[in-house]
Amino acid sequence: MRRLAPMLLAALAVLAAACEKKTQPTGEAGGAPSAQAPATAQGGGAPPAGDDVIVLGEVGALTGGQATFGISTRNGIALAVKEANAAGGVKGKKLVVRVYDDQSKPEEAAQAVTRLITQDKVVLILGEVASSSSLAMAEKAQAAGVPMITPSSTNPSVTEKGENIFRVCFIDPFQGFVMAKFARENLKLNKVAVLQDNKSAYSIGLTEVFRQKFAELGGKITATESYSQGDTDYRAQLTAIKKTQPEGIYVPGYYSEVGIIARQARELGLKVPLMGGDGWDSEKLFELGGSAIEGSYFSNHYSPDNPDERVKKFIADYKADNNGAVPDALAALGYDAARVAIEALKKAPDTSGPAVRAAIAQTKDFPGVAGNITLDAKRNAVKSAVVLKVQDGKSTYVTTISP
Amino acid sequence: MAVPGATTLSDETAGRVPPALRGILPVLIAVPVVVLADVLLNTSPFATYLLSVVGVNIILAVSLNIVNGMTGQFSIGHAGFMAVGAYIAGVTSLELKEVALSFLPVAASDQVLFTVALLAGGVAAALCGFLVGLPSLRLRGDYLAIVTLGFGEIIRVVVQNTEAFGRALGLSGIPQYSSVAMVYFWVFLVVLVARRIAGSSHGRSLWAIREDEVAAEAMGVDTTGYKVRAFVISSFFAGIAGGLFAHFVPIINPGSFTFVKSMEIVVMVVLGGLGSSTGAIVAAIFLTLLPEGLRSLFGALGAGGSLAQKVDQIRMPVYGILLVVLMLARPQGLFGTKELWDVLPRWLPRKKKGMS
């Protein structure tokens, strides 16, 4: 027994190491053996020939701090792929998704994406949610010339990594544009004050675009006040804002501060609606803001209440596949990302990196469940956003704003 | 793997090698092997990445072993020192990105600057090690564990709130200078240093502290001094490991240097056997390749459809179960305090007996 344990251990170590080495040559030689592995992975009654499948790669946080994001995204992607396969696949081949977990860590994401590219020879990569993980992956995908689509990383720097990196969500500053348009055209406001979070690049980015667009549309910004994340008293700024008699206040911060700001604004007698971005998107907002936040508006990626037929069908299909769970914004964006990818694969003359990249870049007015997607020259999605209204302690769909 | 092999050889053949060569023999063998490995692997990015991760983990485990194994102290903040090295080296490299030494070709000058950045990271980490170690190593037992734990968390929170370090999003755009050769050159250095310490009078004092601190002090060993020195050396190499890490991972982010990372390194040292450098190496290789190995294994078994998606999540529990089983079967770790070449002859069939 004493001798057995170490021997067993050594055997295991050799096994683990050997597994690596076996796949290594396929990375260099390429071709048939590596295509074989995904085919067997598909299992069941799938035909054994490696040529009959197209392999997509996905990296997501299935464990760790952001696991709910990763799992929602994965479910959305799985639904899109299932639908595509039911409709006959792409170019007569079935689609297979290889999903690797990155434990919510960027270095694991880089490792997983390298494995997808060199070992599994994927034609395209989907992921991640967190911008830091997406940045790590983008660097590797760009270097290898494999197209990558991130469903929901909104930080502008992600697609700046190179021509192979795309996203199907809007970037942070776009929400400023959406709210300016909504305030001016739907709410018909003339005078609006701004209260921004000075510590957050997100808040400053939204404010800048909002001010510019609102003035362009003929409105007037009466005051711009600032606070810092973590403050608890906003009465001085709100009093200064009150003096200018605005018809609305733009507060593009996070829900934790916005809830308190709403309460203190009402205390000071400011009854005008507040407006914000997806930083408001949390159940906590209604807890913190209570009745004070009622009647306020914020922009978001997607709403399950959207009466659009496509959205209704997506929700029904998603519920059927996932024990009745209602898809969140991340599931919707994952679904859209996968459908954009599949559409591009259909259009591309072959599945090589440059061909697929070119096909993705041509995506125009693609009907996604989280808005119509057009990719611009910077590979960011130009798409509609939804505006939600806080009503009876929950957010309800108001309208869709297109760029 | 080339590196421990090289030192083994130097020990075994010590009797036959001319005295003048003994000091540099490991260098003569290890450096060409490392460079050759780098050239051979150039075409396989995945193997390069994986080997780099393995190398960094070896450096971390072997350096932690100097404190936890040889000196018998319990430090659980190694990821904190790694973070210091990673961020200092990363920022240095970012600053020097546009700079090149005029008298060298660009590639060579990059490597020189990379070495400078690494050393900056290592020295910064060593300084932190000194500052943390000096007050806390006067204490005995569990206190060091608590202090190092606190230090690791402080570093993470500081980074998270510093604009220059990229806050929570992380630091990206660090030039990717690292290569297998560079990583394994440092692996070689840390193993050499650890082995030399273990065999020196300095090392004997560390062993004495580990076995009985009071007795060591009674014998005239300056316990605090030895402990602090061991701790500083260990922190220096952790900083180097962090610096290397920052130059092959495209983005470094506070989430990579949490308490969990510290515990991973402690697990490697304990699994390998407290006090055994080669044990730490074998455990680091094993534990780093295990998750990827399981990925390949499940793939090869043909886990179909939805199961294929689930196996990726099963990897971590399997990893945990293996650890439990290993510790139950062999509580003193793989090698105990022995080194690979002390244990290997007993495991192998008898015909190899002549080797030892």
UniProtKB/TrEMBL annotation, chain A:
Signal peptide positions on this chain: 1-18
Domain Leucine-binding protein: 56-391
Annotated region (Disordered), positions in chain: 24-47
Gene Ontology BP, a term: amino acid transport
Keywords: Amino-acid transport, Signal, Transport
PANTHER family: LEUCINE-SPECIFIC-BINDING PROTEIN (PTHR30483), PERIPLASMIC BINDING PROTEIN OF ABC TRANSPORTER FOR NATURAL AMINO ACIDS (PTHR30483:SF6)
Entry's family note: Belongs to the leucine-binding protein family.
Protein name, per record: ABC transporter substrate-binding protein
Species of origin: Corallococcus interemptor
TrEMBL record, chain B:
Bilayer disposition of the protein: Multi-pass membrane protein
Subcellular location: Cell membrane
GO cellular component: plasma membrane
CDD domains linked to this entry: TM_PBP1_LivM_like (cd06581)
Tree of life domain: Bacteria
Alphabetical list of Pfam families matching this protein: BPD_transp_2
Protein's name according to its UniProt entry: Branched-chain amino acid ABC transporter permease
Organism: Corallococcus interemptor
